[in-house]
Amino acid sequence: MRVGFGIPNNQGVDDPNDLVALAVEAEKQGYASVWVREHLFHSTYVAERLGNKPYHDALTVLTAIACATDTVRLGTSVLVLPWHDPARLGKMVATLDHLSGGRVSLGVGVATTRDEFENLGVDFTTRGKRMDEILGALQALWTQETPAFAGTFYNYSGLKFSPKPLQKPYPPLLIGGSSPAALRRTARFGDGWHTLRQSPAQVAAGKAKIIELTEAAGRDPAGFDYSLTIPLRFTGKAPSKPLMERTALTGTEDDIAATVAAYRDAGLDEIVISDSSADMDSNTEVMTRFMEQVWPKL
Q1: Number of structural domains, the chain?
Q2: What CATH number is given to the structural domain containing 183?
Q3: How far apart are CA 283 and CA 21, in angstroms?
Q4: pLDDT digits (tens, 9 = 90+) for 206-250
Q5: What's the predicted TM-score (pTM) here?
Q6: Hey, which of 1, 8, 133, 283 would disulfide with 151, CB 3.0 to 4.6 Å?
Q7: Which domain holds residue 136?
């Protein structure tokens, strides 16, 4: 099992250079990956959390991190695909993959912020169809010298597309979400599953369903990667939920280690911890305390 760290580009940090410095520290401490989130507008719960504070762009932050680090993988948790043009996104991700030496893991999802879709002029009710189409378009753009793709929303033919990603055939596509549609999408397009706030029991059930659906689709699920982003709080108090029903890392170091072990036993390949705070000192303290006092227990 691997451990990653959530970079708080979504928490209203004033200076994005602090986010880069935090990623550098995560690499020094031995974290396998760093991950960023995405929203374009301060919508719904984002507006409630941030007010006028900034929400920094996911891929721009990862690009800066790529140039300041050497080994950590660079993950998105997650990009909202229906907001993106596949050709532009495909070029950005392929370029980032080259800049980083092939370290990109692309977590993608559909989001639920209807007001944000409306502000972007994207029909909320078509977000699932758009995501499926964009996934197919990205695969064509990244693997075909002269991409040919015909869909309802996007069509490409007759022109070369470059660069192709450094990773072959392309960076891992990690499908976000836990709905039946998300699990079907993982089976059809994904190289793995990246979910949020699921319990160990839910992770085990979701993984089993993905394997079933992938095999039914005629694909081999053996190489799939399963990861989860989860908040962490050292509270010193025993968690209120039974071990297999927990959806956060809370309690003492022993409590948190036991919860992480439950995720590992449920079949999770990587757990991404997050302080969910704009305070750089707090992020660094959580990062260090987990790596020094929890991770050795596992």
Answers
A1: 1
A2: 3.20.20.30
A3: 11
A4: 999 999 999 999 999 999 999 999 999 999 999 999 999 999 999
A5: 0.97
A6: 133
A7: 2-297
